[in-house]
Amino acid sequence: MKKKYLGIVLPLTFITTQPTLASSSYSASSILKYTLTVSNQNSSSNELGNLIINSHSYITPQTESTSSHASISEQPVSLIDLNIPHTISFNAQDSINSGSNISEYYHNLDLSFENRASDTNDIFDISIDYQYTLSVKANGQAANITLSSDIYDPNENWSNGISVSVQNDISPNFENSNFSDTISFTLAAGETQTWYFESFSEANLEMTNVPLPAAFWLFGTAVLGLISRQSTKKTLQ
Length: 237
What we know:
16% of the residues lie in helices and 59% in strands. By secondary structure, the chain is an alpha+beta fold.
């Protein structure tokens, strides 16, 4: 008779002695798509070879935990890529099973333009058509994430952008947003101009072990008592 109930008692004992573990996590994604259009006002030349375009993309951790991570992927910019969409992606994420974490990341894309023409008639009209897509997701006991993007030129103090954030408790939460615009400017011979595209993610995670409710323990005890009682009855019979 003992062998018959051994397979029932042991699994129940195992279940009732294990705490329930969960995790808090977040993921943030900023995708920038942009297209460069350039023309020369000098109709007799129409050369673009004296226009130098450079792009520099980098991540700066403001606050970083041992488990958080951020990455970027991009396409280099050159004159042969004009009128072709470019995509650069910034991703940040973190996940914890206990304790608390704070992670903050800056992602910057610097687009610089230089007119090296010796002919003052070589004046370049430049347009940057861009679109930002921001997505954030939070899950777990307590997870808060904010992601923002801005575009600015320090010389003109011009800025425009979007922000998206989520706060959640237990249930998953997801949010996204899109924004598009066009930057147009003129670059005379000998001039330079740099536009800065910046994304910033800020996340707070908290996680503690979640104990099973008292009713579960009482239920487990009652089941074990019932099994013992039925076993005693059969033995007496």
